[in-house]
Amino acid sequence: MPIAKVIDTELYYETIGLGTPFLVMHGGLGVDHTYFRPLLDQFGDIFQITYYDQRGHGRSKEVSVDSINYEQLADDANNLRETLGHDKMGIIGHSAGGFVALHYALRHQKHLSYLILLDTAPAFKHMEEIMGIIQGRNPSPEVLATFNAPVADTKLELKNQLKTMHSLYFSDYTSEIEDNINSIIDKMILKPEIMKRGGKLMETYDVNSLLTKIHVPTLILVGRDDFICPPSQAQLMHNIISNSELFIFENCGHYPFLEAPDEFFSVIRKWFKKFD
Length: 276
Hints:
The chain is of the alpha/beta class. It has helices at residues 70-84, 96-107, 127-136, 141-148, 155-165, 175-187, 192-202, 231-240, 256-259, 261-273; strands at 3-6, 9-16, 20-25, 47-52, 89-94, 112-118, 218-223, 244-249. α1 packs across α2 (96-107).
């Protein structure tokens, strides 16, 4: 089992593929990296992809929840880069993994080659918009109550919570997608206490005023129907990050790589080819 010693803890990681090295930062917080696989493995012909579980997550070493914050997670990732022996790496950051990716870009830009921000946001100050989108979809009382409920205390309860409310995260929640996402959730190692910590961190998360400092080639991707990190947030980042491109996937929610995989891979490959 590949383990990297970083700072004051140990991170579980897996590396596949050839080409330009990339770190993949999972969202959550409180989940693990496995929801990306095996789909993102398709990039293995152009990227050397390192998936990892962030500190305290998944198969990585248990840590004090208080030691988890976006700055520390970014520093962990940079230490992992050093351990892997790369002077620079690209980053794919999804959802809250994008929060970490933005902190990495702000703290360790000299070691960053490319930045791909997937369904993320530069701050979490748009709750009114989130609730407006949800209400417009007329969710069932059970889904709405689950979304508004506190994070469950046990892993089993948390799995059930995620399964109940994940219909919100997709544009068209077909039975096939439901079966797929339920299988993904069942396989993940969930950490309720870390997910609660993530909720607290989002209350003060805001890097909007710092985005002018990011100059690496940046691709910003978002599903048109993403309710939690909607296109408005992607547009904000695109407006401020000078060397950025924005692409919006139609008929997609928070997981374009699950809802529109062919288009997702095509868009990234086309963008990266400009620099290859």
